Amino acid sequence: MAQRFSWSAGWRAAAAMGACFALTATASPTAWAHGYGKSDLQVRHPWTRATPPGAKVAAAYLEIRNSGRQPDRVIGAATPAAERVELHVMTTAGGVMKMREMPDFEVPARQRLVLQPGGSHLMIVGLKQPLAKGDRIPLTLRFERAGELAIELEVQPVDSRRPHH
User: Backbone phi, then psi, for 71, in 5-degree steps?
Assistant: First the structure.
């Protein structure tokens, strides 16, 4: 005898699949591993390096993609792992590399901002304890238009030059 299709069974299955998707989509940011988003901004591959005992500073790197029609700006950052977070840029003049603090980083419309070793980065100042490989460090980015976005930095080996995800 042929099995009859039951709308109620079909709807139950669809509802169960939808519930699984909703739980996955609304899970904590760590469930998404290396990407975070708010408004038109997506933050990808946030990372930092492990630090030796006694170190008081670390640098953090990431990529911010702006898919919107309006530019935005990173105007600050904070982490409970340190006293403060500063926005820094590296420049080379006359063969000498210099680092200076910036008031903000522009994230142009429909473009991306890349914070990477040897360039612009977040300087984590006044570390409360050393950063160990494998740790995840909470950090909140403050944007001029999008507001605050909580992310986690993945701590990579001390000699890393790029994220190892």
Answer: -70, 165
For residue 104, give its domain range.
32-156
Q: Per-residue pLDDT tens for 114-155? A: 999 999 999 999 999 999 999 999 999 999 999 999 999 999
Query: Domain holding 118: CATH number?
Result: 2.60.40.1890
